[in-house]
Amino acid sequence: MPIIPLRTAAAAAIAIAIALSPAPLRAQQAAAFTPGRVTERVASRAEPERSYALYLPAAYTADRTWPVLLLMDPRGRAMVPMELFREAAERHGWVLMSSYHTLSDADSAAGVNDASLNSMLEDAQDRLSIDTRRLYLAGFSGTARHAWGVSLQLEGNLAGIVAVGAGFPGPALSWRTTLPVLKPFAVFGTAGNLDYNYDEVVAVDSILDGTPHPHRTVFFEGPHQWATKAVATEALEWLQLQAMKSGLAPRDEAWIDSLLAARRRAAAALSGEDALREHRSLAADFAGLRDVADVEARRDALAADAAVRGEVARRAELAARYRVYDRRIHAFLDELNAAERMPPVSRGAEAFDVERLLREAADSSDIAAMKAARRRMALALVWTTGYGLRQYMEKRDFTRAVAVLRVAERLRPRDPGVCYSLARALAQQQGEAAPALDYLSCAVESGRVPITTITGDRLLDPIRAEARFTEITARAPHG
Q1: Band of the pLDDT at 28, cuts 50, 70, 90?
Q2: At the N or C end, where does the chain have fewer CB atoms within 10 A?
Q3: Nearest 5 degrees, angle CA 204-CA 206-CA 209?
Q4: How many CB atoms lie within 10 A of CB 64?
Q5: How far apart, in whole angstroms, are the C-alpha atoms of residue 137 and residue 151?
Q6: Rounded to 5 degrees, what angle do the CA atoms 37, 43, 44 make?
Q7: Residue 100, Cβ neighbours under 10 Å: how many?
């Protein structure tokens, strides 16, 4: 069944089905690629300016069809997710295609991502022998959100998504209404336990409970980043299991037994809410495949356990605090945007609850609260050094840029990135050369800001004539 290409904003009125090329032609096309080895850059046939990395499993031939996983990195770093999923793809016989052009957090991201996916979809059908019933998407952060949006356009062909570090691309309520009426596809969600999007990934898992979509959510140690290779492997294996369960792939009974045994051992090593979540997933994943009555009994016992219920309630309370904190940050940013005179640094520190945040993030007596505080701190930093800062710098609103950076400085004193950003913003303000040079010195002392970065940075031009500028930059590392 041919796949309908994605409809970008520029061409939303029409979608043309792509006809599969004849098998001999696909075999000839694929001959340019070496199975078992990554082809680091392949130019799209339809749009040569778009390229992707490609992996064909060692056993690949054109006389059968293969599942394909399209990978979307939010910065177009195609080889990053490629390396995470490659070993599992080889083991289970999956084709990987990873774009060099996908984006996150840019006004043009949706159109760019659709065009990038379209170019890979066309090549997958024209040049390779793929199973059009087994199309999968994997994305991180903004590209994970994009995968959800694409799921609406690829209904019937999409077999599953891997969503890393982000939830839905819009109000959860609308997805709660939409998902139950879509043809089911499998959803593997994951996030770092210090990721500022952790709680929304938890919320997606909860919403999926009320839908026909098979789903599993796994967390790993770490901040907002791609999942570890172990979790990426777990994701692909879980999707393979779901394909066997639904009849999209032939069952490998020995492999199912080995996966169940491994999952049982992992679940037995967990405690509290983590054990409850894994036993729920284990029971759902293997129901109809194996006898999991003992797993269901353990699941029910954990759900009824007073200590586990207390832990679930505690985590729900921490999630509620996160939502309140998120609203508090946005209220301050709205206030900052409307202000004619900049509020004092103390106002920003108060709005971001800096003192309490630092105290709770360092308190290891309550691990759950400590990690929750670190997630709130990550959220604060993404607005004061990421999204919020970026919008002010792009608008050349350096006064407000400094205002949010002062909050970041309270959270991360002498952080080289914060110091360098303050140097750039202050250099653009009248009478602020001395503090700008102080912050530039702070950044250079870290050894992480090379002279090439400073030399090419036009925002530092107003302070280049200062005597201290030459002395400071002489200490910057080369290369």
Answers
A1: low
A2: C
A3: 110
A4: 11
A5: 9
A6: 110
A7: 18
Average pLDDT over residues 321-349: 94
Q: Are strands 51-55 and 95-99 parallel, antiparallel or unpaired?
A: antiparallel
Question: Where exactly are the structural domains of the chain?
Answer: 9-250, 313-473
Q: For residue 439, which of 449, 452, 346 has the smallest C-alpha distance?
A: 449
154-165 burial by CB neighbour count: b if 16+ within 10 A, else e? beebbbbbbbbb
Residue 108's pLDDT band (boundaries 50, 70, 90)?
Answer: confident
Q: 189 pairs with which residues across the strands?
A: 163, 217
Does residue 23 carry a pLDDT above 80? Answer: no
What does the chain come to in residues? Answer: 479
- The CA angle 310-312-316, to the nearest 5 degrees, is 115
Query: What pLDDT was estimated at residue 160?
Result: 98
SS (H, E, C) 195-232: CCCHHHHHHHHHHHCCCCCCEEEEEECCCCCCCCHHHH
**Which residue is associated with the tokens 């959803």?**
187
Q: Under a CB-based contact definition with an 8 Å cutoff, are residues 410 and 422 in contact?
A: no
For 436, the token pair is 């700008």
| Closest C-alpha to 410, from 457, 468, 349 | 349
Alpha carbon 171 to its chain's center: 18
Pairing status of strand 38-43 against strand 158-164: unpaired
**Measuring CA to CA, which residue among 253, 246, 234, 22 is closest to residue 133?**
246
Bin 396: left if φ > 0, else alpha if -120 < ψ < 50, else beta.
left
- Which pairing describes strands 38-43 and 51-55: parallel, antiparallel, or unpaired? antiparallel
Instruction: Tell me the torsion sign for CA atoms 459, 460, 464, 467.
Output: positive
Selection from 225, 218, 178, 221 nearest residue 201 by Cα: 218
- Report the candidate in 202, 186, 198 with the shortest Cα–Cα distance to residue 240: 186
222-245 tens-digit pLDDT: 999 999 999 999 999 999 999 999
Decide: 113 and 102 in contact? Cβ < 8 Å.
yes
**DSSP bridge partners of 99:** 52
What pLDDT was estimated at residue 156?
84
Tokens of 192: 């770092």
Nearby residues of 37 by Cβ (< 8 Å), 6 or more positions away: 55
The DSSP result for 385-404, as a single string, is TTHHHHHHHHTT-HHHHHHH
Cα–Cα distance measured from residue 350 to residue 112, given in angstroms and rounded to the nearest whole number: 39
Q: Which fold has domain 313-473?
A: 1.25.40
CATH topology identical between 9-250 and 313-473 = no
| H or E element in which residue 88 lies | helix 79-92
CA distance 319 to 339: 30
What CATH number has the domain spanning 9-250? 3.40.50.1820
